[in-house]
Amino acid sequence: MTKREKFKQSLLANVPKDAINQFLSKDKTPISVLILALIVGVLAGLVGTYFDIAVHFVSETRTEWLKSEIGAILPLWLAAFLISAALAFVGYFLVHRFAPEAAGSGIPEIEGAMDGIRPVRWWRVLPVKFIGGMGALGSGMVLGREGPTVQMGGAIGRMVTDIFRIKSDDTRHSLLASGAAGGLAAAFNAPLAGIMFVVEEMRPQFRYSLISIRAVIISAVSANIVFRSINGQDAVITMPQYPAPELPTLWLFLLLGALFGIFGVVFNQLVTLAQDLFVKLHRHDRKRYLFIGSILGGCFGLMLIYFPEVTGGGISLIPTITNGGYSATLLLMLFVARIATTMICFGSGAPGGIFAPMLALGTLFGYAFALIAKGLLPELDITPGMFAIAGMGALFAATVRAPITGILLVIEMTNNYYLILPLIITSLGAVIFAQMLGGQPIYSQLLHRTLKNEKLRQKDLPSDPQ
Prior knowledge:
- By secondary structure, this protein is mostly helical.
- Helices cover about 75% and strands about 0% of the residues.
- It contains 19 helices and no strands.
- The chain has helices at about 5-15, 15-65, 70-75, 75-100, 105-115, 120-140, 145-165, 170-190, 190-200, 210-230, 250-280, 285-305, 315-320, 330-345, 355-375, 385-400, 405-415, 420-435, 440-460.
- The longest helix is centred in the N-terminal third of the chain and has 51 residues, at about 15-65.
- It is globular and about 65 Å long.
């Protein structure tokens, strides 16, 4: 044995065995967490992708029934009303009976769970959100599927930790966040936006560490791979590919952002007002709740026939807007109408998100703004489609208060990478003006409202007799 080998052996002999075992255990822990994050991402991708397929299936089947079987027996308007009312009834009933936390977007529930102040009953949330979301979105209500996929992704993260009996609080937290990132990545075919949504929008709740960041990235990437392997690699929104805008027009993007900053604050306040109004209407009584929800679903079934532009999440409406053919006046009328329908649907507590409706609103106002600016400033080379895309990111930034997420989301959804500069300018302007007006991020606002209402309900409960 050489002197060097003897020296190494003496060093190892002086190191306590507990220290070696601790180092090895630390070395293994990140790998196990990353493997679990991969599992969470794959499952979140499968659930999110097939939720999208299921919603489209329900919508297409409803249309086929109207055209063929039911439409031949009943008047078209009555058949449309009854089918959509029945679909909405399923969503509202499942939420009120089995999982009240599955109402609305679900993203505030995941944020609350990451903070340790909300439970994650994944065995209830997953079936209720999936089936109830199919009913609510399939009825034609103005709701998005991104909120449900984020909540279901987070529920999957908690499910995996429970199945594998993970005791570490940090690991459970990382996998919950990973599921949320995977859900958003699968909802919009946007892995970068999924990662940044957790890191930026959930920054008050997210515990930053090298392991947690890696877990979130792995989950978002694996979920997106699952989505692309099933649905293909095309962007979610098919739009023209625009070049970079002319520099003299950039100040208009800042102006557009300022307008969205003001509107974003009003929009968030309207959401809370709509929710409070519906609580006053149904008073948490199940019969009232189901009756109101079914009537709403039936009304949107009627609007699907006669006024389809104000129904649905709005993702399919965005390419239609950017292809032209709408005047500024008509776009502004649609903008106001969709604000009303968004508030009615989301405020009612139906299991659905608000991402997609916000993107549609941003497109409508952005395109109308560009048409007006083009008429007032004919010397500038203004392309309305660019402002429509910038508007999508601006409204998201103003309401959610996550500008980087909004920028990445819009770029990934539309494949318009050359518009990153106007998107940054518009989103930054929207956030600055929203903060100046004292507005709160919408999901933090919704979580605060949920916690406040629960405390009030607990105070109203009769005390136990002594």
